[in-house]
Amino acid sequence: MPIRNRKSPMNLPNKLTVSRFGLTVLFLWAVFSKFKYNDTLALFFFCLAGVTDILDGRIARARGLITNFGILMDPLADKIMTCSAFIAFVESSHLNPAAPVKVGAWLVVVIVARELAITGLRLLAASKNIVLAAERFGKHKTISQIVTLIALLVVDASQEWPPALRQVFAGWTPTFASLMLWVTVVLTAISGGIYLWRNRQLYLEDM
């Protein structure tokens, strides 16, 4: 499919991508604010950001609106959203010793290091006029990260919900969130290794 470069106006998929940056800011504001239902609001903002992640790619492919901007910024928006959320959970775990699920700092280091490495590779490729699109394995990684973060947010948000609704989630969400956290770390490390290996010629030729 040919890549279409449009200068103005910004097309719908790219608008959705850009909106994810704003939703990430709103999400972090809700996470670190202390008011009634702030965790529920954080869950809402994060889910809305996840919806934009699904829609921007589908609309771009369906309407032939794939651009270099979208190819570069879509994965960057994903990385900022997910890394910010994982780092926020490390902070909230530290501030709340009674948190049902602990997000260890070293787990987040693995995730953030992978994302920084891939971003650096994309910048290196861009300096050589090469655009690296996200790969399928990387998309699976992103989905697992989003599912994990939603599960962690549900664990926190459910504490604000009525007792009957809280009981529905109390029994299984902490276990599910902990399991998905480990799955995500493994997928993140493997997908990063595969991406670096497949594109190794980009950096090996400069070493």
Extended strand count: 0
Taking the alpha carbons of the first and last residues, their distance comes to 33 Å
The geometry reads as globular
Strand content: under 5%
Report on the biggest sheet.
Answer: none
The secondary-structure class comes to mainly alpha
Please tell me how large the radius of gyration is: 18 Å
Can you give the mean pLDDT? 86
Low-confidence stretches: 1-6
* CATH topology label: Four Helix Bundle (Hemerythrin (Met), subunit A)
How does the SSE layout of this entry go?
Blueprint: H1 12-32, H2 38-63, H3 68-95, H4 105-127, H5 136-157, H6 163-170, H7 173-198, H8 200-204
Entry keywords:
single chain, 207 residues, mainly alpha, Four Helix Bundle (Hemerythrin (Met), subunit A), 8 helices, 77% helix, globular, disordered N terminus
Written description of the protein model:
This protein is mainly α and 207 residues long. The chain has a single domain (12-199), classed as Four Helix Bundle (Hemerythrin (Met), subunit A) (Up-down Bundle). The protein is 77% helix and 0% strand. The chain is built from eight helices and no strands. α2 (38-63) packs antiparallel against α5, α3 packs antiparallel against α4 and α4 (105-127) runs parallel beside α7.
